[in-house]
Write a structure and sequence with these properties.
The complex is a heterodimer of chains A (234) and B (269). Chain A has 234 residues and is an all-alpha fold. Chain A is built from 10 helices and no strands. Chain B is globular. The chains are: A mainly alpha (234), B alpha/beta (269). At the A-B interface, helix 2, helix 9 and helix 10 of A face helix 1, strand 2 and helix 8 of B.
Chain lengths: 234, 269
């Protein structure tokens, strides 16, 4: 129990002294996960919606695969990305290994199926409501996808936030492709792993509380900016 | 509102973009070098003396050698003689320079159920642990420490494959393994530096040290630029000269925790 209090104390100390290392790794965590989220959302939202409105032969199969990929083990993704970006791998010449870019790539792979899957679930229901209208208006596929994404934006926000949560809390993949290099690729989760390894549980837990607070803060910020759960809107 | 949100995100991305790095060198090294805190002393000195930003990849010796083979790092600093020799013989590294050493110690519950405190030799201590079947944590991750431990079992004439449940290979870094040992009140072999710096000792205590076989040599190996053209060989060369300098010797020899020197410089000046 004492260690948990020591952790809380450490978290407050880090925040109130504006610890420069803490600010640096927090910003890097945000940079990596937010970029990954934007890219993944740009891919996954249209993909999930498209899967909901389009009928094709292997649709069921594609959906099952997509759902299964939600459980993609981050460590395996990390290892694959490492092998691809390693100097002796196919994309080695780009020199991207152990950079934030490689970490972003890994996170995009991890969270895209999750966002796409939730999007698909939500859009399927919306599509059954909009189906007759959009068909009778003789809309193109693109118009249908845009209309659904626009009107389903609240659910899609949940999908994206779920992806963001998975990304920012993830450690297995970014540890492998980022290498946890101080001042270059160290983020909150890898720093927590490092401090735990040093047996410094108070500092590790302190960083953990900072991470939790950060996730809460971002969720609040997004909800208040997009005015959900207010009078008149839902 | 959605637009404000995206502008907010963009601004955040822009301010958090890392600035372009000056001359950098990637060095794969073992957890003991980093966990001991020695790297925190050496890296700033290297930066101010020769202007090289050393980026540390803290991994086990096995993985460090793999990173060197693939050309993902410019140099390695590890401690496993046989594996290093193979690495050089295969042409992945140009040469091997001994820099410093520390030693391994046997750590265990302070009650010492296997009674290794009075042992004369490391192998004798290990035999007592095996005979008493006291819990023992092995790194099990192909690191330098793990290889050393296996070699010591071999000297003692025992084979970990035949051991029962008391022998637990956790497959983790030095720190995580020490955490496991602390949680299970188990014996473990650790390098002295990691042990002294470790903050979650619990009821563990240093029980055995000082046998010559526990000597732990660290060496520096630049990755062969002929295998990988992008290797920053100039920086690796500069760093090697620095690591073998009087200044490095002073830093390494004077690095102490609780008045105990953690590493002893033995490079040829």
């Amino acid at each position: 129990m004492n260690e948990i209090f020591a952790g809380l104390q450490e978290a407050f100390r880090l925040i109130f002294t504006l610890d420069s290392d803490l600010i640096e790794i927090t910003l890097r965590s945000l940079q990596v996960s937010v970029t990954a989220l934007l890219i993944a959302s740009a891919l996954a939202l249209p993909l999930g919606t498209w899967l909901a409105i389009r009928r094709f032969r292997y649709r069921r199969f594609a959906i099952v695969v997509l759902n299964a990929l939600m459980g993609l083990p981050p460590v395996v993704v990390g290892l694959m990305v490492y092998l691809l970006f390693s100097r002796s791998g196919p994309f080695g010449v780009m020199g991207l290994l152990f950079t934030p870019t490689a970490m972003i790539v890994a996170q995009v792979i991890i969270i895209t199926p999750l966002i796409a899957s939730i999007t698909h679930q939500a859009m399927r229901e919306l599509w059954s409501e909009y189906h007759d209208l959009l068909i009778s208006l003789n809309t193109t596929s693109l118009q249908r996808i845009t209309a659904l994404i626009r009107d389903g934006r609240r659910t899609l926000m949940t999908a994206s936030l779920a992806g963001f949560g998975r990304g920012i809390g993830e450690v297995g993949a970014i540890m492998i492709v980022g290498g946890n290099i101080d001042h270059v690729t160290r983020v909150l989760t890898t720093a927590i792993a490092l401090e735990t390894g040093k047996g410094d549980f108070a500092l590790a837990l302190g960083l953990g509380f900072v991470l939790i607070a950060l996730t809460l803060l971002i969720n609040f910020a997004i909800h208040s900016l997009s005015r959900t759960e207010r009078d008149g809107t839902w | 509102m959605i637009r404000t949100f995206f502008i907010f995100l963009l601004v955040m991305l822009l301010i958090s973009k890392a600035s372009a790095d000056p001359q950098t060198l990637r060095l794969a090294t073992t957890t003991s070098f980093n966990n001991s805190g020695l790297s925190d002393v050496l890296l700033p000195a290297i930066k101010s003396d020769i202007g090289i930003d050393v980026q540390l990849l803290v991994v086990g010796t096995g993985q460090a050698l793999r990173l060197g083979q693939a050309g993902d790092v410019d140099a390695i600093l590890v401690h496993s003689r046989e594996a290093e020799d193979v690495f050089i013989a295969d042409g992945f590294g140009t040469h091997r320079r001994e820099i410093m050493y520390n030693d391994f110690v046997l750590v265990g519950p302070s009650s010492d159920p296997a009674n290794i405190k009075g042992a004369q030799r490391a192998s004798e201590a290990l035999v007592s642990i095996a005979l008493s079947q006291s819990a023992f944590i092995s790194r099990g991750d192909d690191s330098g420490t793990h290889k050393k431990e296996l070699a010591l079992w071999a000297v003692a004439g025992l084979r970990p494959n035949n051991f029962g449940n008391w022998y637990k290979a956790v497959g983790a870094s030095m720190g995580s393994s020490l955490n496991s040992a602390s949680g299970l009140d188990a014996y473990i072999m650790a390098d002295r530096a990691s042990w002294l710096k470790f903050k979650n000792k619990g009821s563990l205590a240093l029980l055995f040290s000082g046998d010559a076989v526990l000597f732990n040599q660290y060496s520096y190996i630049p990755v062969n630029p002929e295998k990988h053209s992008h290797i920053n060989a100039d920086a690796a060369d500069l760093l090697e000269k620095w690591l073998l300098s009087k200044r490095a010797k002073t830093f390494i020899d004077s690095y102490k925790i609780d008045d105990e020197a953690l590493f002893i410089f033995n490079g040829s000046l």
